[in-house]
Design goal:
single chain; 16-stranded antiparallel beta barrel; 3 helices; 56% strand
């Protein structure tokens, strides 16, 4: 009885050293897409920020050490479903429906961390180092119709954005954090991820890879280099994927200017497919509001006599911040294709070498 009586006091003392936050974003978008073949108009989500529901917490363990967790689920609030996850970093099994929808899953991030002054050890499903440059230096943050064409056209495979079964070391960033903002000096993100296949098969290493991101943020300047390599069994349509990208931004006060360069390669049996992209853009404050502007492109070079393709994109957007949590936004984008490229916007379709336009109108609320 004495032990039971002591439990509430013990639980109170333990929780006093911990903090748990429930947070999220609900973003609804009225999207219009026009292509040379078909058009599409629909209500979707995540035109400005990705809709999500998250739980995160940190516990002070003493001696400068801390433990933390992060569970973040993607939401498709236009139809009330969740977003599927990717269990093994491969395009097979459950991963074939990775872009589909289902019940709530913590597909965006599910990690547990241990850290101190020496850095942070993080385990679970998380963003990949090679993705961070895409979203940090894209004026549209890789959301909505304005998303950089480097992101939309990339041949970087299933781990282009996130990797499951990852073990990472992070230095120079806020513990259990998610934002790579300026003012943090030198920082590093090293990540190893597993495909978790049995040995002995031709595809035993599929989905296994390593990536790193090294950056420097100080005052108005931000610059970072990322590189990754992911293994896949070689065939006429697949092979080891390598990605290298470099991004930078500088805040001039009247505008923050961003640039990025990216190169992806896939080593197939018929030769190496190469994809290269670049971006230049700006975020221009207008009082509490913002204008967003970006020019981006991505070119695919196929082996042998196979035809190549290129997509060029222009995007312009405006964000009206009604409060710290609520914003209205509008974005216009146009993509022009050449060669075999047939990139289209907002669900429309276009012929190879054709063009496509898209518009987003939406509201974002965070909590």
């Amino acid at each position: 009885m004495l032990a039971l009586a002591a439990l509430p006091a013990f639980a109170g003392a333990a929780s006093a050293q911990s903090s748990v936050t429930i947070w999220g974003i609900v973003d609804a978008t009225y999207a219009i897409g026009n292509g040379s073949l078909t058009d599409k108009t629909h209500l979707t989500n995540s035109g400005y920020n990705s809709s999500r529901l998250g739980f995160r917490g940190v516990e002070d363990m003493g001696g400068g050490n801390r433990a933390g967790f992060w569970l973040e689920a993607g939401l498709t609030n236009d139809d009330g479903t969740g977003a599927r996850s990717n269990t093994n970093n491969q395009a097979s099994g459950s991963v074939a429906a990775a872009n589909g929808q289902q019940g709530l899953t913590f597909n965006r991030r599910s990690t547990v961390s241990w850290g101190g002054s020496w850095g942070e050890l993080r385990l679970g499903r998380d963003y990949t180092p090679q993705f961070w440059n895409h979203t940090v230096y894209d004026p549209f943050g890789t959301n909505g119709v304005g998303t950089s064409q480097i992101q939309n056209s990339a041949i970087a495979g299933p781990v282009q954005v996130r990797a499951s079964n990852s073990i990472a070391y992070i230095y120079g960033q806020a513990f259990n954090g998610n934002s790579l903002g300026p003012g943090k000096g030198f920082h590093a993100f090293l990540q190893y991820y597993l495909g978790e296949n049995n040995t002995g098969a031709a595809n035993s290493n599929d989905g296994k890879g390593f990536g790193f991101r090294l950056g420097y943020d100080a005052g108005p300047l931000s610059v970072a280099l990322a590189n990754s390599s992911t293994k896949y069994a070689q065939s006429a349509t697949a092979g080891n994927i390598k990605t290298t990208n470099l991004g930078a931004s500088y805040n001039l006060g009247v505008a923050k200017v961003s640039v990025e360069w990216d190169k992806d390669t896939v080593a197939r049996t018929d030769g190496t497919v190469k994809g290269t992209g670049s971006l230049i853009g700006a975020n221009i404050p207008m009082g509490t509001n913002e204008v967003r502007l970006a020019l981006s492109n991505y070119k695919t070079d196929n082996p042998g006599a196979a035809p190549d393709g290129k997509a060029n994109k222009f995007a312009l957007g405006y964000v009206a911040n009604l409060s710290k949590r609520t914003a209205l936004y509008a974005t216009y984008a146009r993509v022009s294709n050449s060669g075999i490229s047939a990139q289209a916007l907002n669900g429309s379709t276009t012929a190879a070498g054709g063009s496509s336009t898209g518009m987003d109108f939406g509201v974002r609320h965070s909590f």
